[in-house]
Amino acid sequence: MSRILQSASERRAETHPLTWRLHDDQSPVLYDEYRKTEGYESVVKALSNYTPESLTDEVKEANLRGRGGAGFSAGFKWSLTMKGEGVPRGYVVCNADEMEPGTFKDRLLMEQQPHLLIEGMILSGFANRAKQGYIFLRGEYHLAAESIRRALADARANGWLGASVNGSGWDFDIALHTGAGRYICGEETALINSLEGKRANPRAKPPFPGQSGAWGLPTVVNNVETLCSVPGIINHGVAWFQNFSGGASADGGSKIFGVSGKVKNPGLWELPMGTTGREILERAGGMRDGLSLKSWLPGGGSTGFLLPEHLDLGIDFDTIGKAGSRMGTGLLTVVADNQSMVSLARNLEEFFARESCGWCTPCRDGLPWSVKILRALEAGEGEPGDIELLEQMTLDLGPGRTFCAHAPGAAMPLASAIHHFRDEFERGITRPKGEAHADPIPVGSV
Ligand SMILES: Cc1cc2nc3c(=O)[nH]c(=O)nc-3n(C[C@H](O)[C@H](O)[C@H](O)COP(=O)(O)O)c2cc1C
Ligand code: SF4
User: For FRET with 46, which of 131, 249, 312, 412 sits at 20 to 30 Å CA-CA?
Assistant: First the structure.
């Protein structure tokens, strides 16, 4: 399913900067072809025309917002990194943990076009005066690992990594680090702990990684798609990136959107930020025959459920935030009319409970408790007061109550499912014991 569904003839460098080189047969774009198609040109330009500060300013001005889920400005993050004279050189880290339920975009980029990620990391390494880059890759992504290893070797052999990058006198290299497949490793400070060989618990902030990250040195963590977006800014300019959506969104650039769930044609499309949910759903061929759309998640399991009436909203960070959800990763999960919201919520909370690192009480104890209640509602064995208890839990798991954003992320789909579909939860208390409910999802099926 991790495939781009726009054909090669439809994709152009100016309109599809992330995917224009991809092959229809999904084979990786190897070094020679990459180099012949403008590959590494942004590095040549950056090393001769920019300073770390001017490169950072350019990315900031372009308004590239982080594609890992939180939408923080990449350039602004880079501007906060300690990197002046006399500051020890630190690290840039690519967050390639991609375990958000329903999300499979970084995988496409890494499997099929690893050189674009390396090019973006070189730019980030230069802008942040880093001495070393790391790609923290989800352990199960074997094909991506193979593709990246080969690309790193080819980039090194051709002078883009190692001592004096492209003859510039600036040394920088990148190492691949494969994780063990834990969702919490995607949280940037837990990722840093894991990279250091420690248990993957999030760290207390401050200090922020930009001041003291991996091994106590300044460290910048960015998502795969964020980093892959940087070469386009340098090649085509800030104005091109800022105006990419033609006014549909205040955010700059393109985005790899996708759809999974009961649609005719699940997959990925590179489109401007601010593309509507309706257009994305139409590209997926609409719902499967006989089904209609009941609800959708705009960007992974840790975002809030929206309704069909939200389909005409442009998908970007602020618009979806105002609608009460989060854009997250921008990969839609659709829910059909015959699917149970109680089952879906239980399925997601099972995942979040399993992936909690156990550091804070509301997350460690609250999430398994919510699963227990949801299982009872699913079986029609709920008790009066269960829904109110679940609602209270979503508040106790909310922002500011725990060390990291895992718990608020887990609370969002549950709170929104109850908000929009309370009657389904109520039927878990009132329907006769033993009566089946619509299309249940098996336990442990995430
Ligand atoms: C529980 C949890 C899991 C996360 N998983 C990922 C992930 O797999 N990939 C990712 O890029 N960001 C993930 N994030 C967000 C990162 O902490 C961080 O914000 C992101 O890597 C920053 O990159 P960006 O600014 O380029 O988006 C996760 C956050 C949390 C709280
Ligand atoms: S919110 Fe959950 S995952 Fe995050 S630190 Fe606390 S226990 Fe760990």
Answer: 249
Tell me if 330 CB under 6 Å of ligand 1. Answer: no
> Would you say residue 354 has pLDDT above 70?
yes
Instruction: Kindly report the average pLDDT of the chain as a whole number.
Output: 95
pLDDT tens digits for 241-284? 999 999 999 999 999 999 999 999 999 999 999 999 999 999 99
| 382 alpha carbon – ligand 2 mean position (Å) | 27
Q: Where are the alpha helices (DSSP H) in 27-113?
A: 31-36, 41-49, 52-62, 74-79, 105-112
Element of type H or E holding 92: strand 91-96
Percentage of residues in the chain having pLDDT higher than 90: 94
In this structure, which residue's CA is closest to atom 2 in ligand 1? 187
CA 232 to ligand 1 centroid distance, Å: 22
Host domain of residue 151: 8-242
Mean pLDDT of 345-367: 97
Quick one: which ligand is closest to 397's CA?
A: 2
pTM to 2 decimals? 0.96
Tell me which ligand sits closest to the C-alpha of residue 65: 1
What lies within 8 Å, CB to CB, of 26 at 6+ separation is 3, 111, 112
Question: Can you tell me the mean pLDDT for 186-215?
Answer: 96
Pairwise CA distance, residues 14 & 254, whole Å? 10
Same domain, yes or no, for 171 and 260? no
446 band by pLDDT with thresholds 50, 70 and 90: very low
Q: Is residue 440 part of a domain?
A: no
- In the chain, the N- to C-terminal Cα span, in Å, equals 16
Q: Categorize the per-residue pLDDT at 91 as very low, low, confident or very high, splitting at 50, 70 and 90.
A: very high
Q: Is position 442 within any domain? A: no
Ligand 1, atom 13, residue with closest C-alpha: 186
Does ligand 1 lie within 6 Å of residue 226's CB atom? yes
The residue whose CB lies within 8 Å of the most ligand 1 atoms, and thus the one to mutate among 73, 187, 364, is: 187
Whether residues 316 and 377 share a domain: the answer is no
- Cβ < 6 Å from ligand 2: which residues? 184, 202, 356-360, 363-364, 402-404, 406-407
**Angle between the N-to-C axes of helices 422-430 and 361-378, in degrees from 0 to 180, rounded to the nearest 10:** 60
